[in-house]
Amino acid sequence: MMDVADVLWRLAAVLLAFLLLPLIVGQAEHKAMAHMQGRVGPMYAGGFHGWAQLVADGVKFAQKEDIVPEGADRRIFQLAPAVALLPYLVVLIVIPVGDGDAVGQAVDAGVFFVLAVMGVGVLGSLMGGWASANKFSLLGGLRTAAQLLAYELPMLLAAASVAMAAGTLSLPGILESWQWWWLLWQITGGLVFFTAGLAELQRPPFDAPVADSEIIFGAFTEYTGLRFALFLLAEYAGIVVLSALTAVLFLGGWHGPAAADLGWVWTLLKTAVLAFVVIWLRVSYPRLREDQIQRLAWTVLVPLALFQIALTGVVKVVIQ
């Protein structure tokens, strides 16, 4: 009976985080962009500091008609938003937020598990673009596939460097082995991992697959109402997952002063800072061209990731 209660409690905690954290990131993006770009609406909606902006967006999406194009593959078209969103819920289950058993479910091969599941989430955009019966949606889906193929490799190599340093693929195991001086020689891998994650999420400046000025809104062009809102929610959930994974793998996760009692606070704080960086990059940098996106992956990130693995091997040999 206690085991069942423990499982239910952990699932409830993960579900609560999945429902709240993406919405908090979405609200923070509204406020940050309003401050940085002088946008009036998000600062005044509902009164005090525009607290009702997110509510207004939700009501707007709920009121819009749910339309499926006549020539679309109806089942795939309707399934795509769920495929894009649900994998991030699965990933949250295995991310440790504190010392000990402060994790939904520890997985021995946690690093490979989270990367594989995150890759499934990206396929939601490809499915939506393919099933929409729209040439702009198809082009957006093809760009999504090209980015997935290009940036999955450096992301995996960067994560492999940390796993090699810790001698385990388990996320809690990596945190148990983590030392503060890892920040000095794993920083390159951290930058590669975070940059590749941004590209897989199609966040600016890697938003060529949804470029509204070129291909309307890419794979999401034909989506309306709540189905479109689910794609946006998947984007914000992806920001939470990417920021949390970067914090766990490269910034020590729950490590910090009074970690035994406040470890979860350090994890959330590091995740929040990285999520703000994602928002700041959207406001600050223009969109890269498709050829620039591919060149960055294959000529910059992949060599840097390989260099990080080589450096990790040298450091491991020296330490031993």
UniProtKB/TrEMBL annotation:
Pfam families: NADHdh. The chain crosses the membrane at residues 79-98, 110-132, 153-174, 180-199, 228-251, 263-284, 296-319. Belongs to the complex I subunit 1 family. It comes from Streptomyces nanshensis. GO terms for cellular component: plasma membrane. It is a multi-pass membrane protein. NDH-1 is composed of 14 different subunits. Subunits NuoA, H, J, K, L, M, N constitute the membrane sector of the complex. It is found in: Cell membrane; Membrane. Keywords: Cell membrane, Membrane, NAD, Quinone, Translocase, Transmembrane, Transmembrane helix, Ubiquinone. It comes from the Bacteria. The keyword Membrane applies. Its EC number is 7.1.1.-. InterPro entries: NADH_UbQ_OxRdtase_su1/FPO. GO terms for molecular function: NADH dehydrogenase activity; oxidoreductase activity, acting on NAD(P)H, quinone or similar compound as acceptor; quinone binding. This is NADH-quinone oxidoreductase subunit H. One of its GO terms (biological process) is aerobic respiration. NDH-1 shuttles electrons from NADH, via FMN and iron-sulfur (Fe-S) centers, to quinones in the respiratory chain. The immediate electron acceptor for the enzyme in this species is believed to be ubiquinone. Couples the redox reaction to proton translocation (for every two electrons transferred, four hydrogen ions are translocated across the cytoplasmic membrane), and thus conserves the redox energy in a proton gradient. This subunit may bind ubiquinone. It catalyses: a quinone + NADH + 5 H(+)(in) = a quinol + NAD(+) + 4 H(+)(out).
